[in-house]
Amino acid sequence: MRVIVIGGGVIGASVAYRLTRARVEVMLLEAGRVAGGTSAATFAWLNSNDKTPLEYHQLNADGMAEYSRLRQELEPAPWLHTDGNIEWAGDASGEAALRGKLARLRGWGYPAESLPIAALRDLEPELVAPESVTEFVFYPSEGYVDVPVMVGVLLKAAADAGAQIVARCRVTEMIWDRGRVRGVATANGIASMRILSRAAPARGPMRSRRWPASASLSPQPSDCLRSPIPRRWRFGASCTRPP
Ligand SMILES: Cc1cc2nc3c(=O)[nH]c(=O)nc-3n(C[C@H](O)[C@H](O)[C@H](O)COP(=O)(O)OP(=O)(O)OC[C@H]3O[C@@H](n4cnc5c(N)ncnc54)[C@H](O)[C@@H]3O)c2cc1C
After folding, report:
1. 1, 71, 120, 214: most buried, per Cβ within 10 A?
2. Mean pLDDT along residues 79-104
Protein backbone atom coordinates (compact mmCIF):
# COMPACT_ATOMS: atom_id res chain seq x y z
CA MET A 1 0.00 0.00 0.00
CA ARG A 2 1.11 3.55 -0.75
CA VAL A 3 0.09 6.52 1.36
CA ILE A 4 0.70 10.21 0.80
CA VAL A 5 0.80 12.16 4.06
CA ILE A 6 0.09 15.89 3.63
CA GLY A 7 1.82 18.10 6.20
CA GLY A 8 5.00 17.66 8.20
CA GLY A 9 3.82 18.79 11.62
CA VAL A 10 3.70 16.51 14.63
CA ILE A 11 0.59 14.72 13.34
CA GLY A 12 1.97 14.09 9.84
CA ALA A 13 5.34 13.00 11.22
CA SER A 14 3.67 10.59 13.67
CA VAL A 15 1.45 9.14 10.93
CA ALA A 16 4.43 8.74 8.56
CA TYR A 17 6.50 7.08 11.28
CA ARG A 18 3.77 4.62 12.31
CA LEU A 19 2.88 3.74 8.72
CA THR A 20 6.48 3.01 7.75
CA ARG A 21 6.78 0.81 10.87
CA ALA A 22 3.77 -1.06 9.50
CA ARG A 23 5.70 -1.47 6.21
CA VAL A 24 3.46 0.92 4.29
CA GLU A 25 5.18 2.88 1.53
CA VAL A 26 4.92 6.53 2.53
CA MET A 27 5.59 9.89 0.98
CA LEU A 28 5.15 12.98 3.12
CA LEU A 29 4.64 16.32 1.37
CA GLU A 30 5.19 19.51 3.34
CA ALA A 31 4.33 22.94 1.94
CA GLY A 32 7.02 24.77 3.90
CA ARG A 33 9.61 23.34 6.22
CA VAL A 34 8.85 20.39 8.44
CA ALA A 35 7.70 21.34 11.95
CA GLY A 36 7.31 24.92 10.74
CA GLY A 37 3.56 25.28 11.44
CA THR A 38 1.64 25.09 14.70
CA SER A 39 4.02 22.42 15.90
CA ALA A 40 6.78 25.04 16.07
CA ALA A 41 4.67 27.45 18.14
CA THR A 42 3.20 25.14 20.75
CA PHE A 43 4.18 25.09 24.40
CA ALA A 44 3.53 21.32 24.19
CA TRP A 45 2.84 20.92 27.86
CA LEU A 46 2.08 17.32 28.82
CA ASN A 47 -0.46 17.39 31.61
CA SER A 48 -3.78 16.08 32.82
CA ASN A 49 -4.04 17.56 36.31
CA ASP A 50 -6.95 19.87 35.55
CA LYS A 51 -9.02 17.96 33.05
CA THR A 52 -12.52 16.70 33.72
CA PRO A 53 -14.60 14.61 33.35
CA LEU A 54 -12.74 11.35 33.98
CA GLU A 55 -12.91 10.29 30.31
CA TYR A 56 -11.20 13.47 29.12
CA HIS A 57 -8.65 13.23 31.92
CA GLN A 58 -7.91 9.61 31.00
CA LEU A 59 -7.51 10.46 27.30
CA ASN A 60 -4.83 13.00 28.22
CA ALA A 61 -3.16 10.68 30.75
CA ASP A 62 -3.06 7.91 28.12
CA GLY A 63 -1.48 10.36 25.67
CA MET A 64 1.22 11.19 28.22
CA ALA A 65 1.92 7.49 28.70
CA GLU A 66 2.28 7.11 24.92
CA TYR A 67 5.09 9.68 24.90
CA SER A 68 6.93 7.60 27.50
CA ARG A 69 6.43 4.48 25.39
CA LEU A 70 7.70 6.34 22.31
CA ARG A 71 10.77 7.43 24.28
CA GLN A 72 11.64 3.76 24.83
CA GLU A 73 11.11 3.05 21.13
CA LEU A 74 13.30 5.93 19.95
CA GLU A 75 15.96 6.23 22.65
CA PRO A 76 17.69 8.58 23.18
CA ALA A 77 14.80 11.03 23.34
CA PRO A 78 16.09 14.56 24.00
CA TRP A 79 12.69 15.88 22.88
CA LEU A 80 10.84 14.60 25.95
CA HIS A 81 11.16 16.44 29.27
CA THR A 82 9.20 14.86 32.11
CA ASP A 83 10.60 16.87 34.99
CA GLY A 84 7.23 17.29 36.68
CA ASN A 85 5.05 20.28 37.40
CA ILE A 86 4.54 22.32 40.58
CA GLU A 87 1.33 24.03 41.69
CA TRP A 88 0.45 26.01 44.79
CA ALA A 89 -2.55 28.10 45.76
CA GLY A 90 -2.42 31.80 46.58
CA ASP A 91 -5.18 31.95 49.20
CA ALA A 92 -7.39 29.85 51.48
CA SER A 93 -10.11 29.16 48.92
CA GLY A 94 -7.46 28.21 46.36
CA GLU A 95 -5.88 25.83 48.87
CA ALA A 96 -9.22 24.12 49.50
CA ALA A 97 -9.76 23.74 45.75
CA LEU A 98 -6.25 22.34 45.32
CA ARG A 99 -6.80 19.81 48.12
CA GLY A 100 -10.04 18.74 46.44
CA LYS A 101 -8.26 18.34 43.11
CA LEU A 102 -5.48 16.33 44.74
CA ALA A 103 -8.02 13.93 46.27
CA ARG A 104 -9.77 13.54 42.90
CA LEU A 105 -6.52 12.88 41.03
CA ARG A 106 -5.36 10.32 43.59
CA GLY A 107 -8.73 8.57 43.29
CA TRP A 108 -8.12 8.40 39.54
CA GLY A 109 -4.62 6.98 40.05
CA TYR A 110 -2.85 10.05 38.63
CA PRO A 111 0.62 10.76 40.11
CA ALA A 112 0.24 13.78 42.43
CA GLU A 113 1.66 14.46 45.86
CA SER A 114 1.44 17.21 48.45
CA LEU A 115 4.84 18.37 49.70
CA PRO A 116 6.00 20.89 52.35
CA ILE A 117 7.32 24.11 50.85
CA ALA A 118 10.83 23.23 52.06
CA ALA A 119 10.91 20.49 49.40
CA LEU A 120 10.72 23.16 46.71
CA ARG A 121 14.42 23.85 47.17
CA ASP A 122 15.33 20.36 45.94
CA LEU A 123 13.01 20.48 42.94
CA GLU A 124 13.45 24.08 41.79
CA PRO A 125 16.23 25.87 43.70
CA GLU A 126 15.63 29.13 41.82
CA LEU A 127 11.91 29.25 42.57
CA VAL A 128 10.79 31.28 45.62
CA ALA A 129 7.24 30.84 46.90
CA PRO A 130 5.35 33.62 48.70
CA GLU A 131 5.79 33.42 52.49
CA SER A 132 2.15 32.48 53.00
CA VAL A 133 2.56 29.25 51.02
CA THR A 134 3.30 26.27 53.28
CA GLU A 135 2.82 23.37 50.86
CA PHE A 136 2.59 22.66 47.17
CA VAL A 137 1.43 19.88 44.87
CA PHE A 138 3.89 18.09 42.62
CA TYR A 139 2.82 16.20 39.48
CA PRO A 140 5.90 14.08 38.68
CA SER A 141 4.73 12.63 35.35
CA GLU A 142 4.09 15.99 33.66
CA GLY A 143 6.48 17.88 31.42
CA TYR A 144 6.78 19.15 27.88
CA VAL A 145 7.85 18.09 24.41
CA ASP A 146 10.34 19.88 22.19
CA VAL A 147 8.12 19.34 19.16
CA PRO A 148 10.42 20.36 16.27
CA VAL A 149 13.12 18.01 17.59
CA MET A 150 10.59 15.21 17.99
CA VAL A 151 9.32 15.76 14.44
CA GLY A 152 12.91 15.58 13.17
CA VAL A 153 13.50 12.30 15.02
CA LEU A 154 10.23 10.75 13.79
CA LEU A 155 10.89 11.77 10.17
CA LYS A 156 14.47 10.53 10.31
CA ALA A 157 13.22 7.16 11.55
CA ALA A 158 10.53 7.13 8.85
CA ALA A 159 13.03 8.08 6.13
CA ASP A 160 15.49 5.43 7.34
CA ALA A 161 12.66 2.89 6.98
CA GLY A 162 11.98 4.01 3.40
CA ALA A 163 9.64 7.01 3.59
CA GLN A 164 10.11 9.85 1.11
CA ILE A 165 10.05 13.25 2.82
CA VAL A 166 9.57 16.18 0.48
CA ALA A 167 9.52 19.72 1.86
CA ARG A 168 8.64 23.00 0.16
CA CYS A 169 6.07 21.13 -1.86
CA ARG A 170 2.50 22.35 -1.41
CA VAL A 171 -0.38 20.02 -2.28
CA THR A 172 -2.76 21.98 -4.45
CA GLU A 173 -5.32 19.41 -5.55
CA MET A 174 -6.58 15.90 -4.96
CA ILE A 175 -6.53 13.56 -7.95
CA TRP A 176 -9.65 11.44 -8.24
CA ASP A 177 -10.24 8.23 -10.12
CA ARG A 178 -13.60 6.46 -10.11
CA GLY A 179 -14.68 8.17 -6.91
CA ARG A 180 -11.42 7.54 -5.01
CA VAL A 181 -8.51 9.81 -4.30
CA ARG A 182 -5.56 8.33 -6.17
CA GLY A 183 -2.94 11.01 -5.78
CA VAL A 184 -2.25 14.67 -5.30
CA ALA A 185 -1.14 17.57 -7.46
CA THR A 186 1.64 19.76 -6.15
CA ALA A 187 3.61 22.74 -7.36
CA ASN A 188 6.46 20.29 -8.10
CA GLY A 189 4.44 17.72 -10.03
CA ILE A 190 1.82 15.11 -9.44
CA ALA A 191 2.21 12.21 -7.04
CA SER A 192 0.17 9.07 -7.30
CA MET A 193 -0.81 6.49 -4.74
CA ARG A 194 -1.36 3.95 -7.50
CA ILE A 195 1.01 1.03 -7.61
CA LEU A 196 2.40 1.74 -11.06
CA SER A 197 4.57 -1.31 -11.33
CA ARG A 198 4.12 -4.78 -9.93
CA ALA A 199 7.89 -4.93 -9.82
CA ALA A 200 7.83 -2.50 -6.88
CA PRO A 201 6.60 -4.76 -4.08
CA ALA A 202 4.48 -3.32 -1.30
CA ARG A 203 6.31 -5.61 1.12
CA GLY A 204 9.95 -6.40 1.54
CA PRO A 205 12.88 -4.00 1.75
CA MET A 206 12.08 -0.54 0.48
CA ARG A 207 14.46 1.47 -1.66
CA SER A 208 15.13 4.91 -0.35
CA ARG A 209 17.73 7.56 -0.09
CA ARG A 210 18.93 7.46 3.49
CA TRP A 211 18.52 10.50 5.66
CA PRO A 212 21.83 12.35 5.88
CA ALA A 213 23.65 11.27 9.04
CA SER A 214 24.54 14.87 9.81
CA ALA A 215 20.85 15.69 10.05
CA SER A 216 20.37 13.58 13.17
CA LEU A 217 18.23 15.89 15.30
CA SER A 218 17.54 18.73 12.95
CA PRO A 219 13.91 19.17 11.94
CA GLN A 220 15.11 20.69 8.66
CA PRO A 221 17.71 18.36 7.19
CA SER A 222 19.17 19.36 3.91
CA ASP A 223 19.03 17.71 0.52
CA CYS A 224 16.56 14.89 0.75
CA LEU A 225 13.87 17.29 1.92
CA ARG A 226 14.26 19.39 -1.18
CA SER A 227 14.20 16.54 -3.64
CA PRO A 228 11.54 16.48 -6.35
CA ILE A 229 8.79 13.88 -6.17
CA PRO A 230 10.45 10.55 -6.95
CA ARG A 231 9.69 9.09 -10.38
CA ARG A 232 7.94 5.99 -9.10
CA TRP A 233 5.46 8.18 -7.21
CA ARG A 234 4.51 10.19 -10.23
CA PHE A 235 1.03 10.22 -11.55
CA GLY A 236 -0.18 7.30 -13.67
CA ALA A 237 -1.92 7.97 -16.98
CA SER A 238 -5.24 6.41 -15.99
CA CYS A 239 -6.03 8.89 -13.20
CA THR A 240 -8.26 11.81 -13.98
CA ARG A 241 -8.57 15.17 -12.35
CA PRO A 242 -11.93 16.20 -10.89
CA PRO A 243 -14.01 18.46 -13.18
C1 LIG B 1 0.17 28.67 21.34
C2 LIG B 1 -0.14 27.18 21.28
C3 LIG B 1 0.02 26.43 22.42
C4 LIG B 1 -0.26 25.08 22.39
N5 LIG B 1 -0.03 24.35 23.52
C6 LIG B 1 -0.23 23.03 23.51
C7 LIG B 1 0.08 22.24 24.66
O8 LIG B 1 0.52 22.76 25.69
N9 LIG B 1 -0.12 20.90 24.61
C10 LIG B 1 -0.62 20.31 23.47
O11 LIG B 1 -0.78 19.07 23.44
N12 LIG B 1 -0.93 21.02 22.36
C13 LIG B 1 -0.75 22.36 22.36
N14 LIG B 1 -1.04 23.09 21.24
C15 LIG B 1 -1.65 22.37 20.11
C16 LIG B 1 -0.59 21.68 19.24
O17 LIG B 1 0.51 22.53 19.01
C18 LIG B 1 -1.23 21.30 17.90
O19 LIG B 1 -2.37 20.50 18.13
C20 LIG B 1 -0.28 20.53 16.99
O21 LIG B 1 0.99 21.18 16.85
C22 LIG B 1 -0.92 20.38 15.63
O23 LIG B 1 -0.04 19.63 14.81
P24 LIG B 1 -0.38 19.39 13.28
O25 LIG B 1 0.68 18.47 12.75
O26 LIG B 1 -1.80 18.98 13.15
O27 LIG B 1 -0.33 20.85 12.64
P28 LIG B 1 0.93 21.71 12.11
O29 LIG B 1 2.10 21.63 13.02
O30 LIG B 1 0.40 23.07 11.80
O31 LIG B 1 1.33 20.96 10.78
C32 LIG B 1 0.56 21.05 9.59
C33 LIG B 1 1.54 21.15 8.46
O34 LIG B 1 0.84 21.00 7.24
C35 LIG B 1 1.46 21.82 6.27
N36 LIG B 1 0.48 22.07 5.22
C37 LIG B 1 -0.68 22.77 5.29
N38 LIG B 1 -1.28 22.77 4.10
C39 LIG B 1 -0.51 22.03 3.26
C40 LIG B 1 -0.62 21.67 1.88
N41 LIG B 1 -1.64 22.05 1.13
N42 LIG B 1 0.36 20.90 1.34
C43 LIG B 1 1.42 20.47 2.10
N44 LIG B 1 1.56 20.80 3.40
C45 LIG B 1 0.60 21.58 3.97
C46 LIG B 1 1.82 23.09 7.05
O47 LIG B 1 2.87 23.80 6.40
C48 LIG B 1 2.26 22.50 8.39
O49 LIG B 1 3.65 22.30 8.48
C50 LIG B 1 -0.76 24.47 21.22
C51 LIG B 1 -0.93 25.23 20.06
C52 LIG B 1 -0.62 26.58 20.07
C53 LIG B 1 -0.79 27.40 18.81
Report:
1. 120
2. 95
* CATH 3.30.9.10 at 45-145, yes or no: yes
pTM, 2 dp: 0.80
H-only helix segments in 75-205: 92-107, 120-123, 147-160
Judge contact between 37 and 30, C-beta under 8 A: no
Fold of the domain spanning 2-40+148-233: FAD/NAD(P)-binding domain (3.50.50)
Question: Which residues' Cβ are closer than 6 Å to ligand 1?
Answer: 6-12, 29-32, 36-39, 41-45, 170-171
Structural domain boundaries in the chain: 2-40+148-233, 45-145
Task: Report CA(20)–ligand 1 centroid distance (Å).
Answer: 21
d(CA 130, CA 128): 7
**What's at 205, amino acid-wise?**
P
Residue 201 CB partners (closer than 8 Å, separation 6+): none
Please tell me the distance between residue 179's alpha carbon and the centre of ligand 1 in angstroms.
Answer: 29
Please state the rounded mean pLDDT for residues 25-48.
Answer: 93
Same fold? 2-40+148-233, 45-145: no
Query: Which amino acid makes up residue 6?
Result: I
Q: What is the mean pLDDT of the chain?
A: 81
**Closest to 167 measured CA to CA, from 14, 1, 59, 5:** 5
Residue closest to 74 by CA, chosen among 124, 18, 141: 18
More confident site: 54 or 175: 54
